[in-house]
Amino acid sequence: MIRRALETPLFDPSVNETIRTAVPDPLRPIVEAVTHLGDPATVLVVALGFAWIGSSRERGARVLAVALVAFAVTNGLKGVFVLERPVEQLAFAADDYGGYAFPSGHALGAAAVYGAVAIAAEWSRPRRRYAVAGLLIVLVALSRVVLGVHYVGDVVAGAAIGIGIAVGVLWLPTIDPGRLFALAGAFAAISYATPARAFMPATVGAALGAVGAWYALERRPTRLEGSHSAFGLAALAMVAVRLLSTTQGIHWSLELGGYAIAVAVAVASALGPHRTPE
């Protein structure tokens, strides 16, 4: 019903066809591979990586909060709108691609995290950071349209919402990052009551791990031995959990637990008051 009310080129399957045709055949596999830059595990690792290398613990925590809020909002909105993907209207799209279309979670997550990094970072010039972030966001959004799993309107809305989340979270300095982690997890858990549940395990698991590590470090600042190795293993674990979830269909509780443990270790490594130099 909602999509019928939005009968514009943004939700027209023929626009997907036109955009896909405009991409040269040799470049299509590359464009389609770029979609993984918007995977939940990827943007989560990027957010934690920024927290690791950034000079400000507070800014690092806020970029992570941006990622978690983005996941929670994605899950909630998909569950509210429950709009189908265009796969049935597009011959080139994968028939078995599950989940709902609006908004695009990949575009939303990429816009939120890459936008947040561009805003919060201190290296290079702001204009250059924004240009790089903008390019990544456009590529991820384009890949979703080329794959045929989203309409143009899905990715445009996702990108706009993601940027709004990045700006909003980074410009709310009075809210403790730990509370933002908890709010994101709670919102994602509540959205489990809706039909859209794809982002729930990752969001709740990551939020639990982040909240636990954040407040544990505040109560007892400790030196984390081998923090470089621990962070690297945690990042690999997140990617592995994502792969197992998409290829093997592991139970949601295992996915939730995997993200919780991996994110807790990564947060302790990246945001701990004391880190062991290696």
3D structure, described in words:
With 278 residues, the protein is mainly α. The protein has one domain. It is built from twelve helices and two strands; from the N terminus they run ααααααααααβααβ. Strands 1-2 form a two-stranded parallel ribbon. It is globular and about 55 Å long. The chain crosses the membrane at residues 61-81, 101-123, 130-149, 155-172, 177-193, 199-217, 229-250, 256-273.
SSE topology sketch:
Layout: H1 2-5, H2 13-22, H3 28-33, H4 40-53, H5 57-81, H6 105-120, H7 126-147, H8 152-170, H9 177-190, H10 200-219, E1 223-224, H11 227-247, H12 252-271, E2 274-275
Parallel strand pairs: 1-2
Strand order of the largest sheet: 1-2
Mean pLDDT: 80
Number of domain modules: 1
Largest sheet: 2 strands, parallel
Domain Phosphatidic acid phosphatase type 2/haloperoxidase: 61-170
InterPro entries: PAP2/HPO, PAP2/HPO_sf
Protein name: PA-phosphatase-like phosphoesterase
Keywords: Membrane, Transmembrane, Transmembrane helix
Question: Could you name the key traits of this structure?
Answer:
single chain, mainly alpha, two-stranded parallel sheet, 2 strands, 1% strand, globular
Short structural description:
Keywords: Membrane, Transmembrane, Transmembrane helix. It contains 12 helices and 2 strands. With 278 residues, the chain is mainly alpha-helical.
